[in-house]
Fold this protein.
Amino acid sequence: MKYPIGIQSFDRIIEDGYVYVDKTDMIYSLTHEGSIYFLSRPRRFGKSLLVSTLENYFLGRRELFRGLAIEPLETEWAVYPVFHVDFNSTNYTNPGELEKKINFHVSEWEKRYGLPCRENELGTGDRFVEVLRAAHEQTGRRAVVLIDEYDKPILDVLDVDSTLEDRHRNVLKGFYSVFKAADRHLQFVLLTGVTKFSQVSVFSGFNQ
């Protein structure tokens, strides 16, 4: 047997024949019984694998779920516009890294949906709202947003650089305010991290 040690990609686990503990019936429940979730767990707890599984599910990749518990439960396998941000892959101790990462994602999404880049006119949060609106209108389905390690930009500089910590907090506040502003364009939202929701103070505009 092949054990997926260190592998966080659901499609790789399935396609390469690694051992997979099937909990996809819980994925079905999660996606049909609620719309916005926050998951706080320690590192190496399977959060990124959960995000990957949800991403493949919402992309309608039914072939990956053949023989799993979710297959007889799901009848539609609809394809949704998915927006995935993994904050875990960057070192945020350098000023400007967070802004560059978010701007890169939003710029790529603007291209995907044929929107002009309005970097000089709007903040990244407002630009993301426009992307979600366009995705909803063009596909006819509400968007799915998956944020992995939502708090890492703050944790990287916590108790190290208070100025950069405050800067990151404000940038993330603006970005996460999207979830209130674009509520009618959202099908499902999941944020994962290691810090409790109330301890990071970046969700002042987030009323769920």
Notes: The radius of gyration is 17 Å. The longest strand covers residues 186-193. The first helix runs from residue 10 to 15. The CA atoms of residues 59 and 79 lie 5 Å apart.
